[in-house]
Every structure is written in structure tokens, then in C-alpha cells.
Automatic annotation (TrEMBL):
Domain HTH cro/C1-type: residue ranges: 13-66, 97-150
Upper lineage: Bacteria, Pseudomonadati, Pseudomonadota, Gammaproteobacteria, Pseudomonadales
Record PANTHER family: HTH-TYPE TRANSCRIPTIONAL REGULATOR PRTR, PTHR40661
Species whose genome carries this gene: Aquipseudomonas ullengensis
Name of the protein described by the UniProt record: Helix-turn-helix domain-containing protein
Keywords for the protein's UniProt record, in alphabetical order: DNA-binding, Transcription, Transcription regulation
Length: 339
């Protein structure tokens, strides 16, 4: 049988599928798409980025390899021939550029095309005739590496991981810690909760900072900007935050967003805010099920991320038909009772 061309994303998918002894139908079921979609991917008729997370997980390969086709660096250790050189050997911009280009399987012409530079410029950079370029960002993006690594060297694996996180809008551990601190600083504790009657005749609260608590199964969520008028509200909580008049509270139902959000925390959902990458959002998925997670934008697709590290599948692509209910604009937590 003719070997697969793993320089293409389709060849990498087919090669990894065969290595796992999966049929196209079996892989399609694991990913949650049709067999014809797998066939199109393997023939390079469509791009793998639409289901990149799911494909990488199902095939047991790294996302970076699936998307960019780098050689696996866990190769033979007996000779050490396939191992990357120590970072100390990549002691110049030219050496790092050559090594990274070859690692990505690119010719000078291909790198030139991807980065917008001329092939002559790439050649001059690799021979140190040119000491640098003003288009370092484009060059780093084409090589899926950080510009800092190209310029100054350092830990290659960390630089590759940082670049991949940037591609998918995923923050580093330091950035996540900083975000957590900011969220905790803005967190209100022990709000005064008024459990009001659910009777349809109850009018909206006269105080604008008193907002209703809405159930995750409330039919009013289908019209987010009118959800706050729901007759099935569970009560009211005073808001210490700034929000639109359409905002409302929801109780966190599970630990999917722990440790930042714990079960029974109240999140302030504002339907009038425009969701941005890395915002925490509440959605209705394509089947009308409510979900809570962090928005991630990658390439032309959007994903919702579960923050709890103990969940095996933490990225879910937002399918066509999914609807954002609102952006989480704040959170309150009541101290746990002590027995």
C-alpha cells in the first residue's frame, strides 16, 4: 500500500488512524462527525482545524503535530539521531531559524511564501548575512514559534507550547493565575438573598440593583434580553456590579468551571455584552442544552472550554445553531456553613 504523505494534514490523519487500527467510520464516531467528513479530511479536501481538538484526542496525537506536521521528537534514543539539539547548540538567530524551518518540514521558498518575505531574504537570514528582520512576527507565526525564541533562544518546547496557546487564545499558567486573582478580587461575598414568590403577578423589583435568579431550565432563556422578566425566577439578589438592565443571576450547577467557580456560586449573566475571546459565557448548544464555559476562538471556529482540569474532555466546538445567552460579568459566593 502506498505510504501516507504526512507532510499534509490529510496524510497525518490517515496515518494516525491506521496506526490506531481505526476505520474512517470508527474515527468519525469518536470525533462526532460523519464518515464522509473523515474521507474529505484525509483527501485534503477540507481543513482539519474545524475538529482539531476532537481529532487529536481521538487519534492520540498532539494537536501541534496534527495541525503543523512537525516530526515526533520522541524518536529513537539509542542513536539519538532524531532528538532535537540542546538549546545551547541553537546559539544564533540563523541556527534557530534553520532548525525550526527544517523541523516544520518547510523549504526556504515555502517559508518565504507563508511569511511574506522573499526567498532571498530567508537565505540571507539563515546565513547571517542579514542579522534580523522587521517582519519577525510574521516569520514566527509561519514557524509556529514565539518571536522571543527566534530572537533570543531559550526553551524550545516551552516556546512551541506558548505559540500554540497563542494560536488558540489559551492563556499560560501565569496568565490563568493572574486572571483568577482578578476574578477573586472582584468577587462579592455573602450577598443578601431575598427568596421572592414565583407567582406570575409579582412585578419586577423596583430597585435596579436587585436582579432575578434564573433557572438553567427556564424557557425564558431562549430570549436572553427578556429573560430577566421571567415569571419562573427563583428569587432576587442585589448586584454589586455594573450591568445592563437585562442582566440576571444563575446558580452554577456543577464543578465544570472549578476552581474559579464552585457549585452553587451565583454568576451574573449579561445578555447585552458582546462575547470576546476568553470571556466566560452561558450558551444554548445546537440541541438547546444550556452550557457554561470559557470562549475560545481559534482560526475560524469557536470553542467553549471547561476549566476543571479533572475533566478528560475540556474543549467543545460551538456547532452551528449554538446561541450565546450572555457573558458572565461577575460572581458572588456565600460562605459555607460550619457544622
Amino acid at each position: 500500500m502506498k505510504p501516507f504523505d504526512i507532510s499534509t494534514h490529510g496524510g497525518r490523519i490517515a496515518s494516525a488512524r491506521k496506526a490506531r487500527k481505526l476505520t474512517q467510520t470508527e474515527l468519525a464516531k469518536l470525533v462526532g462527525i460523519g464518515q464522509s467528513s473523515i474521507a474529505l479530511l484525509e483527501s485534503n479536501s477540507t481543513k482539519a482545524t474545524h475538529h482539531a481538538f476532537e481529532l487529536a484526542e481521538a487519534l492520540g496525537v498532539s494537536l501541534e503535530w496534527l495541525l503543523h506536521g512537525e516530526a515526533h521528537e520522541t524518536a529513537t534514543t539509542s542513536t539519538g539521531a532524531d532528538l532535537p539539539p540542546p538549546d545551547s547548540k541553537l546559539d544564533s538567530f540563523a541556527k534557530r531559524l534553520v532548525y525550526r524551518r527544517e523541523q516544520c518540514g518547510l523549504t526556504q521558498a515555502q517559508l518565504a511564501s507563508r511569511s511574506g518575505l522573499s526567498q532571498a531574504t530567508i537565505g540571507n537570514l539563515e546565513t547571517s548575512r542579514n542579522k534580523g528582520t522587521k517582519r519577525i512576527l510574521e516569520l514566527a507565526r509561519a514557524l509556529h514559534i514565539t518571536p522571543e525564541w527566534l530572537l533570543h533562544g531559550g526553551n524550545l518546547q516551552q516556546a512551541k507550547g506558548d505559540a500554540l496557546r497563542q494560536d488558540f487564545g489559551v492563556p499560560s499558567a501565569e496568565q490563568r493565575q493572574e486572571q483568577l486573582v482578578k476574578r477573586l478580587v472582584g468577587m462579592a461575598v455573602d450577598p443578601a438573598i431575598s427568596e421572592s414568590s414565583n407567582a406570575p403577578t409579582v412585578s419586577p423589583p423596583p430597585i435596579t440593583t436587585m436582579l432575578p435568579i434564573i433557572s438553567w431550565l427556564d424557557p425564558a432563556l431562549t430570549t436572553p434580553r427578556k429573560t430577566y422578566l421571567s415569571h419562573e425566577r427563583e428569587g432576587y439578589v442585589r448586584s454589586p456590579f455594573k450591568q445592563s438592565q437585562s442582566a440576571f443571576w444563575m446558580r452554577v450547577p456543577t464543578d465544570v468551571m472549578a476552581p474559579e467557580y464552585l457549585e452553587n456560586d451565583l454568576i451574573l449573566v449579561d445578555p447585552e455584552l458582546t462575547p470576546q475571546n476568553a470571556d466566560d459565557i452561558v450558551i444554548h448548544d445546537a440541541n438547546g442544552r444550556p452550557e457554561f464555559g470559557r470562549l475560545r476562538q481559534a482560526f475560524d471556529d469557536k470553542y467553549i472550554e471547561i476549566m476543571n482540569p479533572h475533566y478528560p474532555v475540556r474543549m467543545q466546538r460551538l456547532e452551528e445553531g449554538s446561541k450565546v445567552i450572555g457573558v458572565v460579568n461577575g460572581m458572588v459566593r456565600r460562605p459555607r456553613s460550619r457544622d
